[in-house]
Amino acid sequence: MAKISVENGRLKVPDEVDIPFIEGDGTGPDISRAAKMVFEAAIKKAYGGKRKVSWIETLAGESAYKKVGKWLPEETIEIIKNHIIAIKGPLTTPVGGGVRSINVTLRQIFDLYACVRPVKYFKGVPSPLRYPEKVDCVVFRENTEDVYAGIEWKYDSEEAKKVRKFLKDEFGIEIREDAGIGLKPISEFGTRRLMRKAIKYAIDKKRKSITIMHKGNIMKFTEGAFREWCYKTAKEEFGDITIQESELAEGKTPDGKIVIKDRIADNMFQQILTRPDEYDIIICPNLNGDYISDALAGLVGGLGVAPGANIGDFYAIFEATHGTAPKYAGLDKVNPTSLILSGAMMFDYIGWEEVSKIIYEGIERTFKKKIFTYDLARQDPEAKEVKCSEFAKAVIDNM
Ligand code: NAP
């Protein structure tokens, strides 16, 4: 087996490749086992043995802490550095106690600035919408800035006191003494590189529009600036292929152009419920992206079917959108689709599109037959409820 490398600005992927796999905590091992079965069957079906993956067991999270006393061992960072990509199950984030979220740390170490979350309806899946087939969106969420950057101080810390004093002395701004303080940095650099990635994706996948979701009417120099920089990037770097919504004649898009529009965040939420087909790619700062991707997932079956990827210039970590769902750990119960589809994104990323196509078709046919894990089965009285591993077997049978 061999490693993925970067050569002449492109990924070079050997036919027999090693990929690090972090199984994760809670329900992570259940869904990871199921997902691996599906990946291996799809690779075999696509290439009949000509291409193979060998999974490198890689530790992080609570299970790493129990085994080696560290939430994120240095060895794990080295492994991902050496292999460029990885796939992971969900990780426990300890609440309080000074341990930072491993997910956020991984995103920062590898500068995985784009969180890409496609949300697409599969026929047969129960949905609260009357026409769920209209949902086919990809969220590009900024991953390194915003209130998520982790710059915050406890209300009674020395740092918070200093910040309060500075704000009062320098700007005459009074902040209550019992207030915790967080910062919300949003930069032109961070915004433009994300927008560039979203536009390239739109060109590659022949998507029709990109909507900038922001709260710029209130937070003018962070979210408002995000909006401006997105428009600027489209105009200055992709002016030949993009057009602003305001420039459309009678609302018609000229052939081959990608429309760039923007919506205020609160409005965006009602838009995806009432007119989801008008939204294709949605680009947003970190916190908006967190909210809107779960809301979109809810329209097409919930967190159990929502895949994601954290992507930098080359490094990429593919992961389910949901968390560890600890109450179901070890029960072979939860839906592995989110992780399976994250794997399909990974195979697309390394150029093994045949594998992701087979995975999609397997899931599509399984859902059409209403073979569901508990989360979807409880929403549909006609469903055939199966366990996590049985669902994976059904997907393989339906490939
Ligand atoms: P969660 O683990 O996502 O679970 C919330 C609910 O979502 C579950 O109770 C379950 O709903 C549903 N759900 C989650 N995974 C599912 C699956 N595979 N199939 C079907 N339904 C699924 O969120 P949480 O309880 O807030 O967080 C638990 C832990 O996970 C925390 O430590 C949190 O920090 C961590 N977390 C990690 C990540 C990550 O690693 N990327 C992301 C989010 C949270 P029902 O109860 O309705 O059945």
Account of the protein in words:
Helix content is 41%, strand content 19%. It is of the alpha/beta class. The chain has an 11-stranded mixed beta sheet with strand order 4-3-5-15-14-6-7-13-10-12-11, sandwiched between helices. The longest helix is centred in the N-terminal third of the chain and has 20 residues, at 28-47. It has helices spanning 28-47, 62-68, 74-83, 102-109, 158-171, 188-204, 220-238, 265-274, 286-299, 337-349, 353-368, 374-377, 388-397, and strands spanning 5-7, 10-12, 16-22, 52-57, 85-88, 114-120, 136-142, 152-153, 181-182, 209-214, 242-244, 258-264, 281-284, 307-311, 316-320, 371-372, 384-385. Helix 8 (265-274) packs parallel to helix 9 (286-299). A hairpin with a 4-residue loop joins strand 14 (307-311) and strand 15. The structure holds NADP nicotinamide-adenine-dinucleotide phosphate. NADP nicotinamide-adenine-dinucleotide phosphate is lined by residues 27, 31, 90-93, 103, 303-304, 319, 322-326, 334-335, 338, 375.
